[in-house]
Amino acid sequence: MENDEQSETHAEIMEATYRALCEHGYASLTMQKISDEFEKSKGLLHYHFDSKEELLTAFIDYLLSEFEQDIASIEGPPDEKLDEFIKRFVVVSNTDDRKALHLALLELRAQSPFNDRFRDHLARSDTIVRDVVAEIIDDGITQGVFRADAEPEAVAQLVLASMDGARTRGLTIGDETYPDAVSDALYEYVIDDILVKTNE
Amino acid sequence: MENDEQSETHAEIMEATYRALCEHGYASLTMQKISDEFEKSKGLLHYHFDSKEELLTAFIDYLLSEFEQDIASIEGPPDEKLDEFIKRFVVVSNTDDRKALHLALLELRAQSPFNDRFRDHLARSDTIVRDVVAEIIDDGITQGVFRADAEPEAVAQLVLASMDGARTRGLTIGDETYPDAVSDALYEYVIDDILVKTNE
User: Fold this and answer.
1) CB–CB of B189 and A154 under 8 A?
2) At B2, is the pLDDT very low, low, confident or very high (cuts 50, 70, 90)?
3) Is the distance from CB of B173 to CB of A122 less than 8 angstroms?
4) Does A190 touch chain B (CB under 8 A)?
5) Is B189 on the interface with A (CB under 8 A)?
């Protein structure tokens, strides 16, 4: 019972952090601004997290577990799961909240070379996300959806780097069509080539 | 004569900005710190640039023109020019100065949604860099190096997004091998496929 309550509070703090980051960005984020978005007491916030850094490190892990749950919840063949993964990067460009979040995350990422904890958690997140994509490709090979000579790790690395680059470039130059254009090119030059063609 | 002197001073200011950005990063950069790296007078710095923002906008253009000169100076067939373009992203991971510069630029890029001038100059830079790569592919098609059905704009977009994403991820998680791994995948899944195979 107590654990349920604690994990509910944790989730509420993460949602408050999400809202505060979207509204204020990374640079001017304070524990007070997160507390303002949190419906429970400021004391409870500080009971859970000693510092902004500790809270943001937990937030990186929270986004990762949200992502993992999202991908795991897709029922369907591996090629549809891959489509869904790519769509997540494209959708960012379409809602103001997601744009604001990813801009805040870009600022946080730019600090990570000077912050061991951010860097460690981002590196862990990078490995897990790449593994998720590689596993989708691997499952697709087993199920005959993707070609047997496709290399899961290499494809995963290329998909993730190109979509992340597209999102960053789109966000920073204010071009909402960027991730869409890159995903089109990614399908044409990479994904369509590893799909097993069936005669319909 | 006066124009030569002015453009020499401009180049010296840009080099001072480069050094100051590498040493101090973006967030703590001041006109004073740039002036400290500039051998001539602080008055001359302020005569050329009213504000840090104006100076950094000129610096974005300076990096772009350096890049254009670099690529234009490569004597060789289009596929070698493309190799050289990709190598520029990989090399970033190998020298501390380039790493520091690109981290500073990442911070600056994260500010661009809130700064019209940064955004405009970054958008212009993005278009020009993509055009340079698309032109390399286009020339390669004309010269029979790349396949006639390769689409210059789509390939350019994919190359640029994936290498930019690889650089950002490598820098932020401290993995120097990232751009190399993504460039390997890019060759295997995209560039080798558009190369015209010749019987040697």
Assistant:
1) yes
2) low
3) yes
4) yes
5) yes
A179/A87 same-domain check:
yes
Q: Are residues A181 and A130 in the same domain?
A: yes
Tokens of B177: 């091998």
Model confidence at A1: pLDDT above 50? no
- Sorted by sequence, the CB contacts under 8 Å of residue A138 that are 6+ apart come out as A152
Question: Residue A93: its chain B contacts at CB < 8 A?
Answer: none
Domain housing B130: 52-194
Question: Contact at 8 Å (CB) between A103 and A170?
Answer: no
Of B6 and A151, which is predicted with more confidence?
Answer: A151
Do B189 and A164 count as a contact with CB atoms less than 8 A apart?
Answer: no
Domain count, chain A: 2
Task: For B96-154, write each residue's pLDDT tens digit.
Answer: 888 888 899 999 999 898 899 999 999 999 999 999 999 999 999 999 999 999 999 99
Q: Report how far residue B141's alpha carbon sits from residue B131's, in angstroms, rounded to the nearest whole number.
A: 15
Q: Which of A24, A105, A109 to mutate to test the interface with B (most CBs of B within 10 A)?
A: A109
Structure tokens at B57: 């906008």
